[in-house]
Amino acid sequence: MQKILDAILAGDLDSVGNLPVPESYRAVTVHADEVEMFADRAHADKDPRESLHVEEVPTPELGPGEALVAVMASAINYNTVWTSIFEPMDTFGFLRRYGKTSPLAKRHDQPYHVVGSDLAGVVVRTGPGVNAWQPGDEVVAHCLNVELEHPDGHNDTMLDPEQRIWGFETNFGGLAELALVKSNQLMPKPAHLSWEEAACPGLVNSTAYRQLVSRNGAGMKQGDTVLLWGASGGLGSYATQFALNGGATPVCVVSSPQKAEICRKMGAELIIDRNAEGYRFWKDENTQDPKEWKRFGARIRELTGGDDPDIVFEHPGRETFGASVFVARKGGTIVTCASTSGFMHQYDNRYLWMNLKNIVGSHFANYREAWEANRLIAKGKIHPTLSGVYPLEQTGQAAFDVHKNAHQGKVGVLCLAPEEGLGVRNPELREQHLSAINRFRGV
Ligand SMILES: NC(=O)c1ccc[n+]([C@@H]2O[C@H](COP(=O)([O-])OP(=O)(O)OC[C@H]3O[C@@H](n4cnc5c(N)ncnc54)[C@H](OP(=O)(O)O)[C@@H]3O)[C@@H](O)[C@H]2O)c1
């Protein structure tokens, strides 16, 4: 591994394909024999630092259409939090089911799960049938793993019945020194960014792009008013940029003055601090409070000068969904990709049907959407929202921070990269956008 790293650091990328691939590598894993370890703990007390291990695992055999990538940096996504606390279920069920689909997929069914759904790094080897990518290419990877043997996925690959999220529903993810991907997950690494900056947008940027911008999601247009929950978080920090970039007006919901400030720095003007304003959409575990929906809607109108949201960008789920359906404008769209606070949503359907609103489900992004989202990063039109970086050994702490909502934007992880700031190939473009690239740093 050291020889591969030395070649990358020396810029000798042509030699990477000729260097031997190590038989094992360091990776962040969860263990199948530990999935019950938090069984008697409350959600908030389940601790990723106890369940995430950093250990040596065997290098998987490379199959047709696949690539082995030397991972310079990766990032924490909420799916790694879910995996590490074994909620809503442990991920070994995904690996077992995948393993049954073919002899090659059987590789993924192991007693350990190498997690992580983002990477920036260098292609080390490609399998048979891969022509678009070569060893030595500097890449990022999106996390759509898709078989495409069925007709259903051929208009939109997210609809393929064998669609999986790499590093969550498959093994050999990005929080490691090596990663196994399908070659159609690869995209060019934005040249003006360091490894850790390039690694952090992938999953959330692509998801936010489909959810908000793509016609497969809300199809945002200029002039739209967009209500964004968690506007400074992983998804929200990209959705806020897409709204501003696309001529819409974001109404950013956050939970602290620091988070409000970072939204202002991105260029948003309309901000609601949900903590300071004390919204309590639920009177108790089973009863919502429509008066609070109305108070929230009135506040949005006060900020917008009377407009209701054309689009509500949803992911908190149970806690906010009733309010989201209520505040969307007549004919508006509530687009949801998650349920962080609980997946059994409750809303008053009268507001939906009488006002002809739409609820749209959205999940990750197809290759085209991920490519377009990455292209916006590469052109310096959307910027990474990296707030802090941990070494691979401290991935548990990084996931803990995200679990506790103690972070801003994205939290990065250095895998092979020995320090931050390496891998920049276009310093001129970087210089033009330096303050935007560093906006979330150390907040
Ligand atoms: N389907 C997909 O493809 C996909 C892709 C990416 C993520 N996700 C899911 O989307 C969710 C968010 O991911 P993320 O990366 O954006 O996470 P994140 O970085 O933790 O940001 C989420 C933000 O949501 C806000 N929030 C959390 N709980 C809330 C609540 N009860 N009420 C209101 N706001 C709340 C918080 O912001 P404030 O505290 O500032 O309000 C938080 O910063 C996760 O469940 C994740 O698994 C799904």
Topology summary:
Elements: H1 2-9, E1 24-31, H2 48-51, E2 53-58, E3 66-75, H3 78-85, H4 92-99, E4 112-114, E5 119-126, E6 138-141, E7 144-146, E8 163-165, E9 178-182, E10 186-188, H5 195-199, H6 202-213, E11 225-228, H7 234-245, E12 249-254, H8 257-266, E13 270-273, H9 274-277, E14 282-284, E15 287-288, H10 290-304, E16 311-314, H11 318-327, E17 333-336, H12 349-354, E18 358-361, H13 367-378, E19 386-391, H14 395-403, E20 410-414, H15 427-437
Parallel strand pairs: 11-12, 11-16, 12-13, 16-17, 17-18, 19-20
Antiparallel strand pairs: 1-2, 1-4, 3-5, 3-9, 3-20, 5-6, 6-10, 7-8, 14-15
Helix pairs in contact: 3-14, 6-7, 6-13, 10-11
Bound molecules: NADP nicotinamide-adenine-dinucleotide phosphate.
Can you put this structure into words, describing what you see?
The structure is a single chain. This protein starts with a helix and ends in a 6-residue tail after the last helix. It has helices at 2-9, 48-51, 78-85, 92-99, 195-199, 202-213, 234-245, 257-266, 274-277, 290-304, 318-327, 349-354, 367-378, 395-403, 427-437; strands spanning 24-31, 53-58, 66-75, 112-114, 119-126, 138-141, 144-146, 163-165, 178-182, 186-188, 225-228, 249-254, 270-273, 282-284, 287-288, 311-314, 333-336, 358-361, 386-391, 410-414. It has 443 residues and is an alpha/beta fold. It is built from 15 helices and 20 strands. The chain is globular. Helix content is 30%, strand content 21%. Strands 3, 5, 6, 9, 10, 19 and 20 form a 7-stranded mixed beta sheet that branches. Helix 3 crosses helix 14 (395-403). The site of NADP nicotinamide-adenine-dinucleotide phosphate has 30 residues, from helix 3, helix 6, helix 7, strand 12 and helix 11. NADP nicotinamide-adenine-dinucleotide phosphate (NAP) is lined by residues 77-79, 203-204, 207, 229-230, 232-236, 253-255, 259, 274, 315-316, 319-320, 337-338, 340-341, 363-364, 402, 405.
